[in-house]
Every structure is written in C-alpha cells, then in structure tokens.
Amino acid sequence: MATITVTGAAGYLGSWVVAEALALGHRVHATVRDLADEAKTAHLRQLGARHPGQLHLFAADLLRDGSFDAALAGADYLIHTASPYTRAALRDVQRDMLGPAVDGTRNVLASANRCPTLRRVALTSSIVAMMSSLREAYAHPAHTLDESHWNTGSTADDEPYSYAKTSAERAAWDICSAQAQWQLVVLNPGAIFGPSLSRRSDAESVKMMQQFLKGAFAAGVPALHLGVVDVRDVAAAHVRAVLDPAAQGRYLLVAESCPLLRIGTTISDCCPAYRNKMPRRELPRWLIWLAAPAIGMRRDYVRDNVGFAALYNTARSRSGLGLSYRSIASTLGDHVEQLERDGLLA
Asked: What gap in Å lies between CA 326 and CA 235, rounded to an integer?
C-alpha cells in the first residue's frame, strides 16, 4: 500500500483518480479548497466510507505557499490535477487562469521538494500544450500529433487556457530538472468525457453534454474535431504513471478523433430518446465564421480549428501505460446515464 497525494480531488478528473487509487488498495491524501463545502466533498466522503481508513481529506489552496505540505507529509507519490479550466471570457487572466495554473503548479512542486519520502509526480497537462490549433496539428507529417510536439503559438491574450497549460507544464519540467529526488511524468489528455462521480455541472464537458441533450445544437454543429478520451481512462493513466517505475516523459491520451456531429449521432444511437435533440448536419464554415461573435467563438479560432481533422499517435500510452481505451459509444452512453440519474438535464 502506497500513499498517494491527489490535488484537485473534488474535480471531475481528480475524483476518478482518487477512486482508482482507492480501488487498488492505496492510501490517498486528497486536497480540496474547502473542507466545509459539502456539495463539493460529499462524493469523496462516500468514497472514503467504501474504503475505510484509506482516504484522508486536506484543505489546500493553489496560491497559498506551503498549503500542500500537510497533504504531502509521508507521501510516496503525487498526482497534481488541480488547475482551472474554462472556455468562458475571463475578466482577469492572471488572477483566474495563469496564477492558479502556473503559480499553483510551482507552489505544489515546492511542497513536493520539501517532502523527503516523495518518489514520483504525475502532472495533468493537456493536449493543448502540444498544439496551438488543429490547423497546426494538421500541418504535421501525416496530420498526426505526438508527444514530441509543443504549443508555441498560444499567448495569454489569444488562448489563455492553452497558454496556461503549456506554461505550467514547462514550469514543472524545469522544477523537476533542478532536483534529483522525484521523477516527473506528464499526462496530456484530449477532450475528457464520461460519467462524473459528483453532481457538479461546472466541468466544460458536462456543460457541452447538457447542450447536446437539451437541443442547443439541433440546427447543426461546426466541422470541429475533438480528440476524445474517457475520464476513467485518464484517471487510470495517472495512477499507472506514478506506480510504474518504467513510466517516463509525456503521454498523449486520446481514444480517437471525433467530430461534433459524430458525438450527436453516437448519442442518438445509444440513447434514442434524445434523437430529436441531436444535430444532423455540419454547418458551413463561412456561416460559423460570420456567426462566431454571436455564439461565443472568436473568428480566428474558427479560422484555425474548424474544418481541420488531426490524428493522434497514442502508441506510448497504449504500450507504456497499458491503456486500452473505451469506445466513444461507451463513454457518451455512460455520461448520459449519469446526467439522467443525477437530475442534471432538467
């Protein structure tokens, strides 16, 4: 039994990481921002009840120096998932995105450097740390993205989330190279879907699923391709990345490249009750470009992403981490079932 510290444990991905580690019999030190927030910790407490003595919750803040020290005391491994994710316009990019992502990573790893028992760290990065746009990925040989690629085009003003994830990952590699105690492994997932362990609806993929199921895209969708992956597979990859001493470097995590239209048709096939809510066509690129400001998209984003279908080389994650990715139908079908069960489609 190892002791694994998981940051962002109440989040969409972090919750599944905790569940995976507990199921394997390990102790988990799980960090949350507010221990008194029952709405955000109830599902973790339920996991703890199913695994008596294995789960311990700690309050920690990404921007408060030393706040992760207690959660890391005695830990063998650290899985750092805590980071903001939103596609909404931000009033203060530094405060709301760059600070928590980049400075937060530095803060967590400073605590890691003060933990003498720590052997390995797994960091949740993103596919957007590998590319600034689908146009860029499409320009690679065979239109294929892999772990050798880095996002060099995003900026804090242009794509703050992509810039923050790239900057946070680079900072982690720099911090790792400056010490010799612990090893770093980085996971770069695509668009994460699949059932949530909580009833929270603030995850971006949950919001998108709700839009599909409520008919927001019934008139049609852009020709936009997502590198889709199941949240449970991403969680398993994180736990394997710290437990397997042979794991190293970066791992691109994508089940397959999936256009938005196929998300709709897949939901129609596995959940026929929503068939009339699903899109049946892709809208012309010129129409999306014209309508972009009205639908919350930037025209330069449309130019650089709509109509480009990149591929993803995931050989490292399959062979190195032993992943066998769930099908898109399984991911989306289970996600719809969870949203219905938790009353999140009213």
From this structure: 13
Residue 162's Cβ-count burial label (10 Å; 0-12, 13-18, 19+) is: buried
Number of helices (H), then strands (E), in the chain? 14, 12
CB-CB contact of 255 with 331 (8 Å)? yes
- As a whole number of Å, the CA-based R_g of the chain is 20
Q: Are 203 and 15 in contact (CB under 8 A)?
A: no
Render pLDDT for 261-279 as a digit per residue (tens, 0 to 9): 999 999 999 999 999 999 9
Question: 188: closest CA among 236, 247, 126?
Answer: 126
185 forms beta bridges with 122, 249
Q: Which structural domains are found in the chain, ordered by start?
A: 3-341 (3.40.50.720)
Structural contact between residues 221 and 261, judged by C-beta atoms closer than 8 angstroms: yes
| Amino acid at the residue 193 | F
pLDDT digits (tens, 9 = 90+) for 55-112: 999 999 999 999 999 999 999 999 999 987 776 667 788 888 888 999 999 999 999 9
Q: Which pair of tokens denotes residue 176?
A: 């790792």
- In this structure, what DSSP letter does residue 153 have? S
CA distance linking residue 316 with residue 250, whole number of Å: 9
Largest CA distance in the chain: 58
C-alpha span between 188 and 130 (Å, rounded): 8
pLDDT in tens, 218-242: 999 999 999 999 999 999 999 999 9
What tokens appear for 103 in the block? 């400075």
